[in-house]
Amino acid sequence: MVVTPWEVKGKIDYERLIQEFGTQPLTEQLLRKVAKHTDGLHLQLARKLFFSHRDLDVLLDLYDKGVKFVLYTGRGPSGPVHIGHLVPWIFTKHLQEKFKTRLYFQMTDDEKFVIDDEAKLKETMQFGYENALDLIALGFKPENTYIIYDVQDIDLLYDIALEVAKRITYSTARATFGFQENTNLGWVFWPAIQAVPCFIHKKLTGENVPALIPAAIDQDPFWRITRDIAQKLGYYKPAQIHCRFLPGLGEGGKMSASEPESSIFTQDPPDVVKRKVWNAFTGGRPTAAEQKKLGANHDVCTVYQYMLYLFEEDDKKLAERARKCKTGEMMCGECKTDLTEKINKFLIEHRKKREKAKDVIQEFHIKR
Ligand code: TYM
Would you say the CB of residue 150 lies under 6 angstroms from ligand 1? Predict the structure, then answer.
């Protein structure tokens, strides 16, 4: 298993990640505390898709005492957005609505340029624009959603980035991120930039409040170094809530832009979605006869995972699907057809909203 901000592969053991990264599991007690503020639990919490955190309890205690918080999340625009990226964004929107709080969203066009020898800055900046349309299509509102495009907005970020960078040694950065002799200087400095939106609210408003960061757990190394220096700079430590990875459609692993057949992109037309789902890895048996007799295994099935994460919101229907799978009453083809329909229905609507987002995207650009 490899889980870094730039590479995720192998069979992911989430319990082990909690141990190795030193995060906390999301306990039932903490979930109850969240539910108190959110009129019940969001599906992604109830289904344990978000599973780990840092200081969420501290953040909620502060909230109860009247200290508000801001939300912070982001995207490295190396290419088009896939459905996995939407998982933490959908949850972020839920939190934003329930807690009525501002979101800072960082578009790291600079990161994707420095970490990839082949990348062109013009292209990562263009993907920044394209990816922002996907974010806006999810229904965020410009009044409280502030998108930061690193290259364009570096003047706003730079002083805080310097304060951060000055307090993190190369040996800490190397131990955290695995930098090598041949890692370029841009990349070595870059993590200071991802720390900045944790703190930017104070610069913009004068209000010192903590940030809560919903993201998959691959981003956690950034927060480790940021939390170490936050208080030295007079800020709260940022809190995190971590989700699992929506798996690729192949056997195991993160969805990767370099393996386009294993991911569904928001721009994929219906026939491409159909092909990808049709080729997906399932827990099915080699023949229909065997499946009818022995049943299949939904636990390892990527089609089932897509239903669980995003496409079957009704718990009873999901449980019924699992039951029919295990008992051999349902064949993989039926599930694949259902999923294809659900994804295409969602994406057709998403793309309409994405088109409309072009008219309002400027309103989401961080207001200074
Ligand atoms: P990036 O572009 O790799 O990923 C964007 C967000 O999507 C999450 N993610 C996934 N979530 C569920 N299932 C998946 N298969 C999956 N793949 C990726 C990532 O954890 C991330 O939340 N450096 C960052 C950009 C960034 C950022 C941030 C992200 C800047 N500031 C603050 C989160 C929070 C990046 O390249 O993300």
Answer: no
Neighbours of 52 (CB within 10 A): 21
Encoded tokens for 309 = 């994460």
Amino acid at position 339, single letter:
L
If we measure between CA atoms, which residue out of 239, 243, 216 comes closest to residue 47?
Answer: 243
pLDDT at 251: 79
Residue 32 has a pLDDT of 97
Assess whether the C-beta atom of 194 lies below 6 angstroms from ligand 1. yes
Distance 259 CA to ligand 1 centre (A): 17
Residue 245 Cα to ligand 1 middle (Å): 10
pLDDT at 253: 46
Q: Which residue has the tokens 């409309």?
A: 356
The tokens for 102 are: 């501002």
Select from 82, 48, 38 the least CA-distant residue to 308.
48
Has residue 254 got a pLDDT over 80?
Answer: no
Query: Looking at the predicted structure, is the pLDDT value of residue 259 above 90?
Result: no
Residues 6+ apart with CB under 8 A from 159: none
Residue 245 has pLDDT above 50, yes or no: yes
Average pLDDT, the chain: 96
How many CA atoms within 13 Å lie on the side-chain side of 294? 11
> Rounded mean pLDDT of 111-138?
98
Task: Assess whether the C-beta atom of 215 lies below 6 angstroms from ligand 1.
Answer: yes
Q: How far is the CA of 120 from the centre of ligand 1 (A)?
A: 20
Phi and psi (nearest 5°) for 21?
A: -85, -15
